[in-house]
Amino acid sequence: MNTKIKVVRSARTGDNLIILAEKSRLTWTKSYLNEEESAYIRKAVKEDINQIIFPRNTGLIVIQFLKKNGNQYESREESRIAGSEILAKLEHYKAQSATLINERKQNHVLDFVEGMILGNYQFLKYHTDKKDKKHILAEIKLTAGLAPKKDIDHLLACVKAVYTSRDFVNEPQSYLTASQMSKDIVKLGKECGFKVQVFDEKKIKSLGMGGLIAVNMGSFTPPRFNILEWKPKKAKNKTPIVLVGKGIVYDTGGLSLKPTANSMDRMKADMGGAATVIGAFVATAMAKLPVHIIGLIPSTDNRPGNNAYAPGDVIKMYNGSTVEIMNTDAEGRMVLADALHYAKKYKPELVIDFATLTGAAVRSVGTEAISLMSTADAKVVNKVKKSGFSVHERLIEFPLWKEYGDQIKSHIADIKNLGGPYAGQITAGKFLEHFTDYPWLHFDIAGSAFLSKPNAYRPKEGTGVGVRLMFDFLKNY
């Protein structure tokens, strides 16, 4: 992470100042502005100008007006977006640091800072001129009393985790094979303090994880099954919460090769669910949250190699069920199914899976939301939805009615891995439900895990979606 937060007693002469303000409260202007600048501020208020910059020899003064908003969630998101917008102005003026001052009744300072730092993310690993491209802002100063130290520490842990998740998604598959992902997870575990166990191909086969084995059959590189654990001494939960992430490091569609133009261009991001789980562990361990969590990440690529599994095949899964393969591009649910069954051994009080699973989810909710399906108690669902609104990673719940299950019935096997032409995200959810017998939440993040263009503090390509949502949920569990 390339931006630090420092708490200072007060702003000093020469600091670049960012003043968060309301148009109805201008008494603060005399403390920071001269008469001409104050007069301009009053004029700007009348003309509904929301951002003013006064370049000075001694340092910038940036005023950001934020509207009063009775909706706390919307107000917090407006603050994040404003933070990311001001970041670009600071970059233009080559500002290496900025001191934040709050003159608003609403204190959404940390949301503003979050937008700045998340917007400052870059993935420059493969640029030969990375020094020239690197963003300049290195430090944000907060005057004492703006935010508790614990909240600042939690923010830094969460942003570090989002950066980590984005890095995983942005890595090309030429680097991020299934085995390399495991190596990187092990390294993070040592750095952040969570345990990691990795099953190799021999162990996976000995367990009979038929879904993961089948998807890997066309690949030249072996699969991996990763188990992460954070277990503090005084965990709030008696039995663990299990997080499951789809780890398809690259997806060609297999023998059901993706047919549409440009459809493979973003398939390095098909391990976005795994990246979410990894990020959630980084944040939870760094913040030392008192909650016991286990992560399960089945990982492979999906290729049309010589021995690739094929439409018409019947695969015996880890739980003993048989699955008729209708389309090898419905591979994510195959590997997730084995992981969901493996989760049963922990007698979990809740299991949550994350996956870039279906194009249907993208078509139904776009890039602005996450598709949710659940068998968990309504109280749990409401809590996770609240976290979604809180961090602006909103959830739209779809039903798991039994009629949708009829679409995945097979005449030669227990179920098939593809439903009908409609409600594809729901029939995929029904497939996964078949392998669960515990309270379960399914997040289809296909629309929001990877963007074709930047959106405020969410960059182009990997967004790290789900990390902030899960951290907020676990923090308030």
Structure in a nutshell:
With 477 residues, this protein is of the alpha/beta class.
- Please identify, by name, the CATH architecture of the largest domain: 3-Layer(aba) Sandwich
Which CATH top level class of the largest domain fits? Answer: Alpha Beta
Strand content: 15-25%
Unreliable runs = none
Radius of gyration over C-alpha positions, nearest whole angstrom = 24 Å
Helix percentage: 25-40%
Major sheet description: 9 strands, mixed
Description:
The chain is α/β, with parallel strands linked by helices and 477 residues long. The protein folds into two domains: 4-143, 3-Layer(aba) Sandwich (Leucine Aminopeptidase, subunit E, domain 1), CATH 3.40.220.10; 155-475, Zn peptidases (Aminopeptidase), CATH 3.40.630. The chain is built from 16 helices and 20 strands. It has helices at residues 29-32, 35-46, 72-92, 109-119, 130-133, 149-170, 178-192, 201-207, 210-216, 272-286, 332-342, 359-365, 378-391, 402-405, 424-433, 467-475; strands at 4-8, 17-21, 51-54, 61-65, 97-102, 139-143, 195-199, 224-230, 241-245, 247-251, 293-302, 314-316, 322-324, 350-355, 370-374, 395-397, 415-416, 440-444, 450-451, 461-462. The chain starts with a strand and ends with a helix.
